[in-house]
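Re: duplicated header lines in exported structure tokens

Our pipeline writes sequence and tokens for each protein into one text file. With two proteins the header for the second block appears twice in some exports. Here is an export where it did not happen, for reference. First protein block:
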Amino acid sequence: MIHENILDCIGKTPLLQLSRLFTHQSISVIAKMELLNPGGSIKDRPALFMLQEGMKSGVINKDSHIVESSSGNLAIALAMACKIYGLKFTAVIDPKIASANLQMLKLYKANIEMVSEKDQNGGYLKTRIDTVKRLCQQLPNAVWINQYANPNNWKSHYFGEAEEILNQIDRKIDYLVIGASTSGTIMGVSRRLKEKFPELKVIAVDIVGSVLFGGTSGPREIPGIGASTVPALLSPDEIDDVIYVDDYESALGCRELLEHEGIFAGGSSGSSISAIKKLIPTIPEGSCVLTLLPDRGDRYLDLVYEDEWFEMIKKRHFNRNVRRQENLTLQNVV
């Protein structure tokens, strides 16, 4: 088949058993290789679906100026899609964006609005959204895609990779382990898979410093996972459990994925890998665990794959654990 354009190449990503990294004889860990989408990430799916649905409804037309807040991957996906559709696009980003992502946006000729002020939770999300709202008042024909509340976000995953998974897999899935951020992916995939596997356990992966599931706000270095504000799409009642990892554990997961499986993946992939390592000792023999590897590692060369940065967060991780142990000891004494 010869496709008409790059957008026709989105989806149809393969499943891969991570048998070299997870060597447990009876527990299978299967990954959906979303990093193989043409834009380099799973965000190709919601970017295309939200634009197409907006055009179908008439909200988006040929004169529309698309505006969105993004930590990088959705911005790149929208820049790619808007290039094909001939639409103007402005990405509202923050200083935590990976340098590779920023360069890619510039190459796509996207308009870039960089925020610098943190919100009350110490992140940039609310500041980015406030900036989007301001731009929508200022720019002619501006349309905010709003990945945080747009139901077409989760529907893109429901009809996209979740449907593909059901057509690809020939066995029961017991656990779904996915990193959470805007929550579109975990909501969409889990809703479709639960129709087929009602007993499926949905495990959200969140990062230390995120407030998604009631955690304490704090500094986070890796973009694309966690949030400083709870998005409208998130339905906590549909989540069975949450596993927390920190920046070091996420980066370590990335490096282990590369070392054992030869997969060069991004930060949220590493987060899920480390979460699965914590999950496996608690689940029954013969279980099947499914995860998604959302994006490529080349966007994190100056973070998780940079040795000096890795050593810095490794030290922070162990110092945190020492303080936690000291506090527990003190509580026991008291």
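Second protein block, exported in the same file:
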Amino acid sequence: MAPAKTGGGWDSTARAIQQAMQDEGIATTVEVTNVPGDGGVVGLQQFVTESAGDASKLIVAGYVMVGSIILNASPVTLSDVTPIARLTGEANAIAVRKDSKIATIDDLIKEWQAKPTRLTWVGGSAGGVDHIIVGLLAAEVRLDPTLIKYRARSGGGEAVADVLADNKVIGISSVGEFAGHAQGSAFRILAVTSEERLPNVDAPTLKELGYDVVVENWRMIAAAPGITDSEVAKISTDFDNLNGSATWAAVLGEKGWVNTYLAGDEFRTQLEKDILSTRQVLQDLGMVK
């Protein structure tokens, strides 16, 4: 299951898995179904309810779903599925119109601190990865997160349009959404949220500029609840094999996705940490109690 409409990141991930697993002979047939709604929460609830005990069922999830579950006070969470592995990650970029007087992240921080509500941040859904990064950066520079002026959009394309329309708008979205526009004359990427600089993106990381904000929008795969240990082991082996395949490496290169593969207990521990830190940021933003 891809808990989103066709064409988005989770759907793309599910269909990439589908093709690679079939090409590698890991699975004979793989079917993808789409169940959109509430940042993945609708699909997650259906998956937990209808797939319990069925080892043939999998769901793609990701960082965006973590915030959606908290904001929607969902009765079903990622603790109700069987996490298998984190597959990929994609850094975000912070950008402005090229004629903005904000030429660097330091310029941005200085103006933001002086007049927090003068600048408008534009990104994806409220409480999603983009919004969380803005909250983390606000905390890093000791700015009250509740003063953040954030405009949620349905995708990176709308954020680009807002940035190009107003030089006091700060855009935040995945690197993939922004990189192509930065090659033109009207758009400037100020920084990226990756651990290290990215190839083909002429911008520093927040970390190297002295701001300890490193975030990747990761995507994961989970199995149904209530399956046996041997079934979990078989699914885990399948994804270990997928991750090590030439086909999957080619998919990552084609899509521009970073391989952040993490499985087993290490992944489950990291997932718990990500959920706790996301809840804290959303509380700091005044979005949840």
